Amino acid sequence: MSGAEAARRAFAPNWQGRAALAALAIYSVYAASQLDIGLERIWHGFSEAGAFLGRMVPPNFTRWQLLLDGMLESLQIAFISSAVGIVLSLPIALLAARNLMPWWVSAPARAFIGFCRSLHYVIVAILFVKAIGFGVLAGICALVVASIGFISKLFAEAIEEISPKQVEAVRATGAGFAAVLLYGVLPQVASRFVGFCIYQIDSNLRNSTMVGIVGAGGIGGTLFAAFKRFDYDFVAAILLVIIALIFAAELVATRVRAALR
Amino acid sequence: MTGHTGAALEIRGLSKAYVAGKPVLHGIDLEVEGQGITAVIGPSGTGKSTLIRCINRLVEPSAGEIRLHGQDLARLRGRSLRLARRRIGMVFQEYNLVERLTVMENVLSGRLGYVPLWRAWLRRYPSEDVARAFTLLDAVGLPEHATRRADALSGGQRQRVGIARALMQEPELLLADEPTSSLDPKTSVEIMELIATLCSEAGIPVIVNIHNVALARRFARRIVGMAGGRIVFDGPPEALEDSHLVDIYGGEEWL
Fold this sequence. Notes:
The structure holds 2 protein chains of 2 kinds. By secondary structure, chain A is mainly alpha-helical. Chain A has 2 domains: 13-56, no CATH class; 64-260, MetI-like (MetI-like fold, Orthogonal Bundle), CATH 1.10.3720. Chain A has helices at residues 3-7, 15-34, 39-56, 64-96, 103-118, 121-132, 136-160, 164-172, 177-208, 219-228, 232-260. The radius of gyration of chain A is 25 Å and the shape is globular. Chain B has one domain (7-249): P-loop containing nucleotide triphosphate hydrolases (Rossmann fold). In chain B, a hairpin with an 8-residue loop joins strand 1 (7-16) and strand 2 (25-33). In chain B, helix 5 crosses helix 6 (155-168) and helix 6 runs parallel beside helix 7 (185-202). The longest helix of chain B is centred in the C-terminal third of the chain and has 18 residues, at 185-202. Chain B is globular. The chains are: A mainly alpha, B alpha/beta.
């Protein structure tokens, strides 16, 4: 490179970025060839899907009692697990924030959060079903673990991003640690915390319809049984109700988030 | 209190090194009377801010004594440190208000060293504290702003809240770290005037770091010039000559 000319280049070429993009493209082609994905498979799949969808209409609501019971159970799982998860996440996140705690406190707390996040909630639900038996309790426990993993991680990160100046000013008044938390730290992160919680409630609502498939309570069990018995019209009814519920939850969540701003 | 006779604050041999072997403050000795404004001037990075922050221990001094009415602050830990901090008010360059709290909550946070935690949490402050907060808001010229959020205020208004918060502590000493550097010239004068008036009424000595030499001359009754982590000038504003400014800031072309 001739020095003077290179120094005046306005935009340096990003060779690492280009190499990474190329590698990604090559790997995608390779992976597709390994997995025998082709247009024929997709065409064939589409015609099967047509037949399957045909058997779903019209949705069958005659067993609405079963459907309603399952949905209510899912709702209860979602709300109880969100409530417990939120209450547990607050202290765990405070312990995990590296700007508030010494490393020997924050490191174990972060490890615990990482542990909660490492397994998918369905796998956690299977473990709880094996450990404490079929039913709602296993589903609640699984979603509590998932909630802790999500909320404490994001909340701890939010705490690490606060302005230290505001905290310093509160410390300078002679406030103790708890008062510094109350006046210097929490006001800066409270609205984000509420945002994470709403997101997690939303997500728990969806997840609570799923844990039933592995026997952890809720509408998922009913859904899975209907699939196995080829009651596709009942499956369609269940799916419609779940979609309606998630849409309603989304509407509420959007409203609340807008009000918080 | 023994304070208002003699020196309120006595600093002896204060040193601070953020990195071992590279001290920012070299054995500072300074006595501050129980009255009036002492302005500390000096170039950026010369340790003015460190000096002020060592006094209320936002920065840990490496060596030396800092005596406030006889009590050595440099040795304090835990609860006794917090009890000492509440005797020292502080005003910051960027106001450092808790933005999402209201003006009233910010002012009352000056009482956090005094009230029990549950009162602070539930906002059940003693009524005399709330009354005093209103009096201070009137005094700093923000009578109508108690319930507004701090982030809705202008810079000058925020600094007024910062002053009210510091005075809410009923401090024996007020530290001001570049209180006007983020403000326009007119607001700067108003803020300095406010600090001067309120503190002289309450008999609180003030130590203020300030970049603006003209403001320092106008409001301080004593000027301390620092350069390279040492005090190179100490005297009344009238005694501060151009030659001293050259000692403090270096160069002559800017004068």
